[in-house]
Amino acid sequence: MTATHVPGLPVIEDGWLISTNPATGEEAGRVPISDEKAVVAAVERAKAAAVWWQGLGFEGRKVRLLRWRTLLVERIEELAELAHREAGKPVTDGIIEVTAAVEHLDWAAKHAKRVLGPRKVRTRLLLAEHAGHLEYQPFGVVGVIGPWNYPIVTPVGPISGALAAGNTVVLKPSEYTPVVGQWLADTFAEVVPEHPVLQAVHGLGDVGGALCRSGVGKIAFTGSTATGKKVMAACAENLVPVVIEAGGKDALIVDADADVDAAAEAAVWGAMTNAGQTCIGIERVYAVAPVYDRFVDAVVEKAGKLRTGTEIGPITMPKQLDIIRDHIEDALAQGGRAVLGGASAVQAPYVSPTVLVDVPETSSEIREETFGPTLTITKVRDADEAVAKANDTAYGLGGAVFGKRNAIRIARRLRSGMVAVNGTLAFVGMGNLPFGGVGESGFGRIHGEDGLREFARAKAITVRRAKSLLPAMTFERTPAQVNQIVKALRLLYGRKP
Ligand code: NDP
């Protein structure tokens, strides 16, 4: 097939959204564009389907979700190949991405009942005549809006939590990766053919906006901070709750007692995997003075072996190439040095690995999300300076620490939702750990117990089981009973701690 389009740029033609291979410009596939009416219709279908899906209960949903998990495993190569064609990522990276998606699906399916199921809570003495019950009820329909950089795991994370909690889902994938999104909905329909429990709607940003205003019970958004704010504003119109998974500028700290070679290997992978287009990608390193030189040498040696077109895929979104080039040029103009790559590393549609040192903290390469295979390494006096610099950002998504004696203490001090110690990005692969950021990286959590609760409302129920001894909540209480209540209160809670 010949290249007929600008590589990576989606094309709209006769009501179809055509996505193109970012390396070659070949068509990667096409999906029909949904207008506002179609989005509302999908949500209405999802509302009807939610009644059936909720009725299946935790066990019924678990079986079906695990069937989908197994389908993903059986067809892992097909899905990874599709992500390669549409997003440009190496097939092996696609395989790893599906692996993480399978982990989240499996965990959510198996643990939803324990985390969200009805339970009794312990009686409190002041209302001893009432039993307390707690359960977590689904919202109904959850809208999932996803990005292009990890078109499989980023939607599957919230989809797993939302479906396991008893919601149905309408997914709006990125305009750059709609075919992967449609593949997810189509394969789910193969294992759950009865009702449209997971649907996809397609188009540009306005379709995401329409989903926010369509009557969904909650929106799970993953994408840039700027779009996250627009999504919140659209959801605010109807007080629709949101979870926002936004960008990051994650830092890795290398302490004096770190295994320097392991730190360099993890830094290179954390920064360059998926061509650096990773929300939790390592973009900055702060290495303490005693290990700095060795660390820089090891990173340059390892990153220098990576080749564009093999380990480093193309930049998926063509306009990102200018941002990456601007950041590198700004770093160099402000006094930074390229010890690998540099401004000439940007050769559309690829960017070769670039390692920058002595970059001032004011540079856009340090302050803004670069989303390319670039890494800054900054020498710091000690771990305190490293933590202060790592935290001096509006973002707060993930992070990493290499070291022995103080590594966990340093990890706790990082202002972020997740930190990997002696590894990078590891937390995204554990189904039982929550995932999400602070500050401009967003709020709310997907994955793990918190991620399941994100897609349900806590519901409190009290059941009277005896007559009140101290009737407080009635107009029929007497002054003597009120005195008894005060006495009981003093007895129970009146003593100084
Ligand atoms: P965008 O914010 O550009 O888009 C994200 C999604 O929002 C897309 O589906 C997009 O549709 C849609 N959208 C755009 N405008 C609106 C709107 N006004 N209302 C509703 N939806 C809208 O992000 P990218 O796709 O470029 O993804 C990259 C970003 O995602 C990076 O900042 C990265 O850090 C972040 N990210 C965060 C993750 C996390 O878990 N914290 C994980 C992965 C990525 P369309 O594509 O059609 O414009």
In a nutshell, what does this entry contain?
With 497 residues, this protein is an alpha/beta fold. It has helices at 36-55, 57-74, 76-87, 91-116, 153-164, 178-191, 205-212, 225-236, 260-272, 289-303, 320-333, 364-367, 383-391, 407-413, 448-453, 479-493; strands spanning 11-13, 16-20, 27-32, 119-121, 130-138, 141-145, 168-172, 198-200, 218-222, 242-245, 250-254, 282-288, 337-340, 346-347, 350-351, 354-357, 374-380, 400-402, 420-421, 442-443, 456-464. NADPH dihydro-nicotinamide-adenine-dinucleotide phosphate (NDP) binds at residues 145-150, 154, 172, 174-176, 204-205, 208-209, 212, 222-224, 227, 230-231, 234, 245-248, 279, 369, 397, 437, 442.
How would you describe the overall organization of this protein?
With 497 residues, the chain is of the alpha/beta class. The longest helix is centred in the first third of the chain and has 26 residues, at 91-116. The chain is globular, with a radius of gyration of 25 Å. The termini are far apart. The chain has helices at residues 36-55, 57-74, 76-87, 91-116, 153-164, 178-191, 205-212, 225-236, 260-272, 289-303, 320-333, 364-367, 383-391, 407-413, 448-453, 479-493; strands at residues 11-13, 16-20, 27-32, 119-121, 130-138, 141-145, 168-172, 198-200, 218-222, 242-245, 250-254, 282-288, 337-340, 346-347, 350-351, 354-357, 374-380, 400-402, 420-421, 442-443, 456-464. Helix content is 41%, strand content 19%. Strand 1 and strand 2 (16-20) form a beta hairpin. The strands form 5 sheets. The protein has a 7-stranded mixed sheet with strand order 13-16-17-12-11-18-19, with helices on both faces. Helix 2 (57-74) crosses helix 6 (178-191) and helix 4 (91-116) runs parallel beside helix 5 (153-164). The chain has 2 domains: 11-247 and 447-456, 3-Layer(aba) Sandwich (Aldehyde Dehydrogenase, Chain A, domain 1); 250-394 and 398-432, Aldehyde Dehydrogenase, Chain A, domain 2. Bound molecules: NADPH dihydro-nicotinamide-adenine-dinucleotide phosphate. NADPH dihydro-nicotinamide-adenine-dinucleotide phosphate binds at residues 145-150, 154, 172, 174-176, 204-205, 208-209, 212, 222-224, 227, 230-231, 234, 245-248, 279, 369, 397, 437, 442. This is Aldehyde dehydrogenase. InterPro entries: Ald_DH/histidinol_DH, Ald_DH_C, Ald_DH_CS_GLU, Ald_DH_N, Aldehyde_DH_dom, Aldehyde_DH_NAD(P). Belongs to the aldehyde dehydrogenase family.
